[in-house]
Design a protein that fits this description.
Length: 125
């Protein structure tokens, strides 16, 4: 092995293909969903205890910071759904080639962006 080859540890200088970006974002959205599960379950618990608990949860979700968390949750869910469907299709043997992979990656990115914007409009309108 050549010991004098250059080592680039700065990930910001590497140009990732769109397929890699979608794969990384799919994993990141899964982590975000996993980390927000306790928040979802806790808010569901308090909202179902009593009418007062429901009012407190509803009032909490009017907070701008809570709206950002809800947006992050719903946006992650949408992206994870689209990218997961893409991965399932590839597991079934559809769109496995390089060209089809790039096209489906751009499709996932476009659909995710549109849904992100629609969720933001819905939350802040």
């Amino acid at each position: 092995m050549n010991k004098k080859r250059p080592i680039n540890l700065n990930l910001m200088t590497i140009k990732f293909p769109i397929t890699a970006i979608i794969s990384i974002l799919h994993r990141l959205s899964g982590v975000i969903l996993f980390l927000l599960i306790p928040c979802i379950l806790l808010s569901l618990h308090y909202s179902l205890i009593s009418p007062e608990g429901f009012g407190k949860v509803a009032a909490f979700f009017q907070n701008p910071v809570a709206k950002v968390v809800i947006w992050l949750l719903l946006a992650s869910l949408a992206h994870h759904l689209f990218a997961g469907f893409r991965h399932l299709c590839m597991d079934l043997g559809w769109a496995e080639g390089i060209k089809a992979g790039k096209i489906t990656s751009w499709l996932v990115m476009t659909l995710s962006f549109v849904v992100f914007v629609l969720i933001g409009v819905w939350l802040w309108a």
